[in-house]
Design a protein that fits this description.
Elements: H1 3-17, H2 28-40, H3 44-54, H4 60-63, H5 77-91, H6 97-103, E1 113-116, H7 119-125, H8 149-160, H9 167-183, E2 191-194, E3 213-214, E4 218-219, H10 220-225, H11 234-246, H12 248-257, H13 263-278, H14 281-293, H15 306-330
Parallel strand pairs: 1-2
Antiparallel strand pairs: 3-4
Helix pairs in contact: 1-14, 2-5, 2-9, 2-11, 2-15, 3-5, 5-9, 8-9, 9-15, 12-15
Length: 335
């Protein structure tokens, strides 16, 4: 059998393995559930202190008050503000002019540890990667866009919990702390796949799954971001958080999670989950066949199986519980 014909058969086989029906898929929903879990772990006094700080956000009128639905019950207004704070860093992508320059920080959302499609890719690429693997804050903070997620979490935490810092700065820092602590619990925000032919960029690889096409939600990263849903109202997100906290298995998971408050460990957990569940045998078989066929990385999409979707959904639920409990524990420092 000719090599081209053999490769095409391997590719067809891999595509057949990656067949499934579209399933229910951590955009706004994931972050808001995390925020509600954290908020509900606070005392009423801590809740009030947090919300009072967030009300002094420099863009509170544009990004909070004007977006609050008119039907939010008064008793849930504070929780809505905290939910909104958790997604605010994503809103900054659509800002214009000086506010976008000041508040939008794309590299803050991730710190990708490298995975390699094959051992040959590892041997050829590992020593040449240019990823920012530093976990501590640099002395020079004049260019904030050079920070990765772990560095940005450290900066946000330092500012948010500083009672001497201006309240508007603390409010912005709390938004980033909620959001980034959530992001780093999402496996695709802690990993990237590298391949000499498919994903050769030494600084980003497949960009946390963004360059892996799947028929469900467009790409692998979006699929994982959306496992808990895309958009949700305050009552629904609150109810989902309450239900998770009432579940004995999830509650035990959360209580165990607060014993580990080092974000480096959170990232390591996500990386291990990425190896096991994001880039499982379905995805790597598909990518290896794509690589061997000579086709471009974006030329074909994988339709992942129902088992893949179920595993992804379960992993995502556990990670939002762990993130929510951990942020709530961090907020014990709130003064």
């Amino acid at each position: 059998m000719g090599s081209k014909r053999w490769m095409s058969r391997v590719l067809v086989l891999a595509l057949a393995v990656c067949w499934a029906t579209i399933g229910n898929a951590w955009w706004d929903c994931g972050h808001k559930i995390i925020a509600s879990i954290a908020y509900r772990r606070l005392t009423p006094e801590q809740q009030k202190t947090l919300v009072d700080i967030l009300r002094q956000h420099p863009r509170f009128e544009q990004d909070f008050r004007s977006k609050m639905p008119k039907d939010v019950p008064p008793e849930l207004e504070g929780e809505w503000i905290v939910q909104q704070c958790s997604i605010w860093p994503d809103l900054t992508r659509d800002f214009k002019g000086a506010d976008k320059d000041k508040y939008n920080h794309g590299p803050w959302h991730y710190q990708d540890l490298p995975l390699f499609l094959t051992e040959a890719d590892r041997a050829a690429m590992e020593s040449r990667l240019t990823l920012n693997m530093v976990t501590t804050l640099p002395a020079d903070l004049s260019n904030p866009n050079e920070l990765n997620a772990l560095q940005a979490i450290a900066l946000s935490r330092k500012t948010a919990f500083d009672p001497g810092a201006p309240a508007p700065e603390r409010a912005v820092a709390f938004c980033w702390l909620f959001h980034l602590a959530g992001d780093i619990h999402q496996p695709c925000h802690a990993s990237a796949m590298f391949s000499q032919r498919l994903f050769p960029n030494l600084n980003e690889g497949d960009r946390g799954g963004n360059l892996v096409k799947v028929t469900q939600r467009g790409n692998l990263h979006s699929l994982w971001d959306g496992f808990l849903g895309s958009r949700g109202q305050v009552v629904e997100m609150k109810n989902r958080a309450v239900a998770m906290m009432a579940d004995p298995e999830f509650a035990a998971l959360g209580e165990k999670a607060i014993q580990t408050l080092d974000p480096t460990t959170w990232r390591a957990e996500s990386f291990e989950l990425a190896k096991e569940y994001v880039y499982d045998s379905e995805i790597t078989t598909f990518l290896k066949a794509l690589d061997m066929s000579g086709a471009a990385a974006n030329s074909m999409a994988c339709t992942v199986t129902e088992d893949y979707l179920k595993h992804g959904g379960k992993v995502s639920e556990k990670r939002v519980v762990e993130a929510g409990y951990r942020i709530g524990k961090l907020l014990d420092e709130l003064k």
